[in-house]
Amino acid sequence: MYVYDDHGARYLDFTSGIAVCGLGHCHPALVAAATNQIQTLWHMSNLYLTEPQAHLAARLTEAAGMDRVFFSNSGAEANEAAIKIARRYSKQVHGAHKGEILTFQHSFHGRTIATVTATAQPKYQEGFGPLPSGFKYVESFTMKSVLERVTEKTCAIMIEPIQGEGGVRPVAVPFLKELRAFCDARGLLLIFDEVQTGVGRTGSWLAWQQMGVKPDIVTMAKSLAGGLPMGAMLATERVAAAFAPGTHGSTFGGNPVAASAALAVLDVVMEDGFLDTVTRRGQQLYSALCALAARRTEIVDVRGMGLMWGIEFATPLAGDLVAACRKRGLLVLTAGANTLRLLPPLIVSAADVERAVATIAEALQEMEA
What we know:
Elements: E1 2-4, E2 10-13, H1 16-19, H2 28-38, H3 51-64, E3 68-72, H4 75-94, E4 100-104, H5 113-118, H6 122-125, E5 135-138, H7 143-149, E6 154-159, E7 162-163, E8 169-170, H8 173-186, E9 189-193, H9 208-211, E10 217-220, E11 231-235, H10 237-240, H11 256-269, H12 274-295, E12 299-305, E13 308-313, H13 318-327, E14 330-331, E15 333-334, E16 339-342, H14 350-368
Parallel strand pairs: 2-14, 4-5, 4-6, 6-9, 9-10
Antiparallel strand pairs: 1-2, 3-11, 7-8, 10-11, 12-13, 13-16, 15-16
């Protein structure tokens, strides 16, 4: 739960490397898995199948409730694969005119030229034009907004169940159900970007599994390999058939070391009771933040799920609060100028939660003075 600076000062880490170190730093199971594998085989071309990759594919598709998986190195790459397979499937099934993808305001899908275009936040796109065509942005989480943007060219709708960089904004389950029904009726694909919400972050392996809305395609990355680079795009058998050998590829995706680490992550997170503890710690954190909000008039909202929480303020003080917390030995994040974001490792204890919220309260008090 801790990192140290070059002077030996200790910091309680409530960032997890932006939701990457889901099991904290140097978890013994991850250290052992990666060390053992790197002493055996650390790379093999994807022209060949490796044992760790094969085992991970089987276990990950089962955990995610999907049929097929494509491995990459990052969330952006996983989302690129989702964009490509959605377009290829739709053109094969519905015709060459199908290719547009709808995304939502405040979304974040990556920093490649395609995924930054899919990201409906101008601040991430500035200076990178001309951006590729084929994306339209939905104004709000309402079917009225969706209907205003959908056309005959639309092939898929891509959404984060909880927007992360966009301010930790959970999407209402009734809207996701409406979206699922709409996609089914129109022959569109539903893509869930679970790069930040996956791997137990919300209290289930993927957020959709407790929301009750299954996508056609889902992307993962962040803490999938506990801090080693790994992403994954998973799809149903029907959609996955659009990718044949040679259609898409990755040099390093699913390499043996990252795959071994991911298998260790699965072992830990899927242990009996682990996700129940994540849920309890999340409820504790939410209750403590609500109690803090009741005492601090500058806090206007507390929102999130599991161990992914945002504290929204009436003014843009999030950056200053991050600095004030760091001075007090706590690492936290922003999600826009007005929102503080908390993403502790899933191994966080009750005492860690108490200390973190107390530190935020002290930092706010200090800033007020």
